[in-house]
Amino acid sequence: MDWKEVLRRRLATPNIGPNKKKSEQELKDEEMDLFTKYYSEWKGGRKNTNEFYKTIPRFYYRLPAEDEVLLQKLREESRAVFLQRKSRELLDNEELQNLWFLLDKHQTPPMIGEEAMINYENFLKVGEKAGPKCKQFFTAKVFAKLLHTDSYGRISIMQFFNYVMRKGDFICLNFFSGNQIGFWSMLL
């Protein structure tokens, strides 16, 4: 046997030998290391200096099991406190009547049929006069949601008032979600 032939065979299969054969797991680890190295080089080796990006915040918490009574009570209590806080934001009948009066007083002519309309300037005036509880409804976002195809850039007073009422209904309906795993969503 010629030494050149032995050398060629050896170079062709360098991992054959009692101590040099790698396991499949080692090959996968080496492949992953090389992939990570080349991928980071390809991405430009960017490193986030902000510590916030190193940990992903937890966004899902599993429901407590039936035998975890303390966790179930905590969940029920936190939901009750949340709904109480939201219900305090609701408008009572007197505030709703005041809101309707202000909207009617500041309507912008001309009417479309029997539908009273309001422009953005008057909308903001009503928002200032309506009080702090109503302030959340008098935003540009709400106005834009309700703005449809009026050539004068106005929204319907009735549609806006119904929007305010439905927000209250949305919170009230959450009191009836017994199993607390469903969710309610607003269409508007």
TrEMBL record:
Q: What is its main location?
A: cytoplasm
Give GO cellular component annotations, separated by semicolons.
centrosome; cytoplasm; spindle
Which keywords annotate this record? Answer: Cytoplasm
The gene behind this protein is PPP2R3C
**Location of this chain's protein in the cell:** Cytoplasm
What protein does this entry describe?
Protein phosphatase 2 regulatory subunit B''gamma
Q: Carries keyword Cytoplasm?
A: yes
Q: What residues form the membrane-spanning segments?
A: none
* UniProt-listed GO biological process terms: B cell homeostasis; cortical cytoskeleton organization; microtubule cytoskeleton organization; positive regulation of B cell differentiation; regulation of dephosphorylation; T cell homeostasis
